[in-house]
C-alpha cells in the first residue's frame, strides 16, 4: 500500500491556500459511499500527525447508513474508535463549494485502525496488488465511468428526469456520440474539466452516451492501479459536486430508467514488468499468452466475484439483451457484445476492457476482484477458449445470473474468494449485503401497489 501522507504535505497546502476554511475528511465504505467529518482549518495538521479517530462501524454500514449488528464491528468491539490517516496526494481543493473547502481522503491504519482495517476496501485492493507484485506483475488500470445528468427536481409523477440543457429544454432523444448534446452541457463540462485539472485527475474524452442526459468521460490509465482507483473515487465525488453547483444531480445508479440504457464502469487493465513494459503487448490482436491466461482467470472467477461488480439490487436491471451490458462469461477481440473485450490498436496498447461493472460498483472492490481473477488465471495457466466473433448475445451458452441473491450466495460459498480476499473482509462485506437484501425485500413500494393492490 502507498505510504500515508507526510505532515509536510499538509503544511505546504495550508501555505499555498490561506483562504481555505474547512476540510472534508472522508473514507470510502464498502458500498462506495464516502463517509467522514467536516473539520476546521486548525484541525488539519493533527490529522496528519496522529490520524483521526473514526468509529469501527463506519466501514460496516448498509448503503442507507444503518449499522449491521453481525458485522463484528458494532457491539462486540463497543464501536471502538479506529485511527485513519490521510492518503498521499488526496488533499485537494473543492472549487465548487461556497465556503472555501478542501477534501482529504483517509484510510485505516494497518494496526491503529483495527478492527475496521480488515473492512477497508482500499486495503483489500492494496493486498491483491502486492500479491501480483510479488510475482513480478505490475497492474496498469483505468476506469471509464458513465453517468446521467438529472434535474434536481423530479417530474410530475415523482420520477427522475434528465436535466435541462443550456437552452432550457430537456434532451428527449438518444443521440449517441452527439456533439450538440455535449455543447448543451458545455458550462458543466468546462467546470468539470477545470476541477479535474486542479485536482490532478486525468479526465480525457467526453462522449454523449446511449440515452438522453447520459455522459461518459474516460480517465487516463495509471501505472499504479491503486492510484487509478483513488482517482476514480475522487472523480465520482467531483462530478457530483460540480453537477450540484449547476443545479443538476449526477447519477451513477446502474439502471435509473427502465426504458433507457444502464450506466457502467468499464475497467481497463494490463500487466507490466518491473521496467514498465506491457506484458500484454503483441502484434496479434488477441495479445500474448499471458493476456489470454488473464482472461481465463477472470472468466473462471466471474460468478464468484459478480457481487463486487454489481453490488445492489438495481445493478441487475442493467443486464438486458442487446444493451451493450454483457450477459455471459465471454471474451472477444474488439467486440462490444462480450464481457471481456480486447480493444484494437497498436501492439504496445494491448489490454483488456472489463465491461461487467455497473457505475454503482466500489472501484476498489471491483479492481481487487478483477486483479485477483487475473492472478488466478496466470498461476493456473487458465485457457479462456476461443474468442467470440460476431454477436456475443446470440452465442451465449450460459447466462450470468440476473438476481442479487444468487450472486450473494456465490460469493459466500466461494473458496477462491475466501483465499483471495480473506475471511475477515468477506465476513463484514457479506453481513452488510445480507442485511441490505433483507431490508430491500422487506420494503413494500410503488411497484407492489401497481402490480398487486387490485389484482391479487
From TrEMBL:
Residues 121-456 form the GS catalytic domain. The keyword Magnesium applies. One of its GO terms (molecular function) is glutamine synthetase activity. SMART domains: Gln-synt_C. GO terms for biological process: glutamine biosynthetic process; polyamine catabolic process. Keywords: Ligase, Magnesium. Residues 153-173 are annotated as: Disordered. Transmembrane segments: none annotated. Its cofactor is Mg(2+). It comes from the Bacteria. Belongs to the glutamine synthetase family. This is Glutamine synthetase. It comes from Pseudomonas aylmerensis.
Amino acid at each position: 500500500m502507498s505510504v500515508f501522507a507526510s505532515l509536510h504535505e499538509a503544511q505546504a497546502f495550508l501555505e499555498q491556500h490561506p483562504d481555505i476554511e474547512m476540510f472534508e475528511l472522508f473514507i470510502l465504505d464498502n458500498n462506495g459511499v464516502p463517509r467522514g467529518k467536516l473539520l476546521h482549518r486548525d484541525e488539519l495538521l493533527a490529522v496528519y500527525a496522529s490520524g483521526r479517530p473514526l468509529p469501527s462501524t463506519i466501514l460496516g454500514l448498509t448503503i442507507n447508513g444503518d449499522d449491521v449488528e453481525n458485522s463484528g464491528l458494532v457491539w462486540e468491539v463497543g464501536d471502538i474508535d479506529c485511527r485513519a490517516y490521510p492518503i498521499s496526494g488526496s488533499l485537494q481543493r473543492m472549487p465548487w463549494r461556497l465556503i472555501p473547502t478542501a477534501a482529504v481522503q483517509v484510510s485505516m491504519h494497518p494496526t491503529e485502525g483495527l478492527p475496521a482495517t480488515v473492512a477497508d476496501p482500499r486495503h483489500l485492493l492494496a493486498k491483491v496488488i502486492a500479491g501480483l507484485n510479488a510475482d513480478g506483475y505490475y497492474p496498469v488500470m483505468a476506469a471509464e465511468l458513465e453517468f446521467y445528468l438529472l434535474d434536481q427536481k423530479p417530474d410530475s409523477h415523482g420520477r427522475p428526469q434528465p436535466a435541462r440543457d443550456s437552452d432550457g429544454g430537456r434532451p428527449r432523444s438518444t443521440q449517441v456520440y452527439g456533439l450538440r448534446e455535449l455543447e448543451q452541457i458545455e458550462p458543466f463540462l468546462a467546470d468539470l474539466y477545470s476541477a479535474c485539472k486542479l485536482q490532478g485527475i486525468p479526465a480525457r474524452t467526453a462522449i454523449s452516451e446511449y440515452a438522453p442526459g447520459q455522459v461518459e468521460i474516460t480517465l487516463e490509465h495509471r501505472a499504479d492501479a491503486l492510484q487509478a482507483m483513488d482517482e476514480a473515487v475522487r472523480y465520482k465525488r467531483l462530478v457530483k459536486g460540480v453537477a450540484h453547483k449547476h443545479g443538476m444531480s449526477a447519477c451513477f445508479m446502474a439502471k435509473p430508467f427502465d426504458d433507457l440504457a444502464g450506466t457502467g464502469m468499464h475497467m481497463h487493465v494490463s500487466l507490466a514488468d518491473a521496467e514498465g513494459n506491457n506484458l500484454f503487448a503483441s502484434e496479434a490482436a488477441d495479445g500474448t499468452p499471458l493476456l489470454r491466461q488473464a482472461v481465463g482467470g477472470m472468466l473462471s472467477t466471474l460468478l464468484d466475484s459478480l457481487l463486487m461488480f454489481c453490488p445492489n439490487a438495481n445493478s441487475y436491471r442493467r443486464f438486458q439483451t442487446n444493451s451493450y451490458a454483457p450477459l455471459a462469461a465471454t471474451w472477444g477481440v474488439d467486440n462490444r457484445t462480450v464481457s471481456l473485450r480486447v480493444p484494437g490498436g497498436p501492439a504496445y496498447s494491448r489490454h483488456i476492457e472489463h465491461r461487467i461493472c455497473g457505475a454503482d460498483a466500489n472501484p476498489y472492490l471491483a479492481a481487487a476482484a478483477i486483479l485477483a481473477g487475473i492472478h488466478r488465471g496466470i498461476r493456473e495457466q487458465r485457457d479462456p477458449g476461443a474468442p467470440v466473433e460476431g454477436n456475443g448475445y446470440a452465442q451465449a451458452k450460459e447466462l450470468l445470473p440476473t438476481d442479487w441473491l444468487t450472486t450473494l450466495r456465490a460469493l459466500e460459498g466461494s473458496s477462491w474468494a475466501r483465499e483471495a480476499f480473506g475471511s475477515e473482509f468477506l465476513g463484514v462485506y457479506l453481513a452488510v449485503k445480507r442485511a441490505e437484501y433483507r431490508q430491500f425485500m422487506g420494503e413494500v413500494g410503488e411497484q407492489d401497489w401497481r402490480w398487486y393492490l387490485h389484482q391479487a
